[in-house]
Amino acid sequence: MAMTTSSKPVLKAAIEYGPIAVFFTAFILFDLFIATGSLVVATIVAIAVGFAVQRRIAMVPLITGAVVLLFGGLTLYFQDEIFIKIKPTIVQGLLASVLIGGLAVGRPLLRPLFGSAWQLNDRGWTLLTWRFAGFFIVMALLNELVWRTQSTDFWVTYKVFGSIGLTVAFTLTQLPLINRHQLPEDDD
Fold first, then answer.
1. pTM for this structure?
2. Does the structure show a pLDDT above 70 at 20?
3. What average pLDDT score do residues 118-130 get?
């Protein structure tokens, strides 16, 4: 399957956000359990399509997919919505732990993930990694607060729109740091 350069961002967005769109649609039309089953299937399809096109599976979608399969499966098997509700907490906590672990051994792990998009100096990568680790911790705690104190309808809406919106907003607030630590471009 040949992909043009301009179609890759569309594919990436579909792979990343397609399963959550399927989840939300199925929740609106049916219920949380059908939505969870739909999320599991859509995640498997997204990972398979990503592999078919790119001939590799990126680490973050692979880990997220494994967590979706595990917690989605537990939700369906036990018919208990708690498992799908704690999945974002687990994913965010894992991401924060991995980033902090990388920093502990002197490797800001955002560099391999975003190095093709941003060319930052070492200090910039370290600061950005700390900030994202903190953000993921806050998001994990926020998910816990929302699912424990709000209705399932509210939690689903928060999960689909609130968490994505907060992530975009947080990333935008990091642009000054990114600009400040951007390496000068080489003139060929």
1. 0.86
2. yes
3. 95
According to the model, what pLDDT value does residue 177 have?
Answer: 96
CA distance 188 to 178: 23
Q: How far apart (Å, rounded) are the C-alpha atoms in residues 188 and 37?
A: 52
Q: What token pair was written down for 7?
A: 């179609």
Where exactly are the structural domains of the chain?
A: 1-75, 81-188
The pLDDT, as a whole number, for residue 187 is 52
Residue by residue, DSSP assigns 41-93 as HHHHHHHHHHHHHHSS--HHHHHHHHHHHHHHHHHHHHT-THHHHHHHHHHHH
Contact, 139 vs 170, CB < 8 A?
no
Mention every residue, 6+ apart, whose C-beta is less than 8 A from residue 84.
Answer: 32, 36, 39, 71, 72, 75
Phi, psi of 121, deg, nearest 5: -75, 170
- Cβ–Cβ under 8 Å, residues 20 and 165: no
Distance CA 98, CA 39 (A): 25
Dihedral sign (CA 84, 88, 89, 93): positive
- Whole-number pLDDT of residue 122: 94
Mean pLDDT of the chain: 91
36 — pLDDT class (breaks 50, 70, 90) = very high
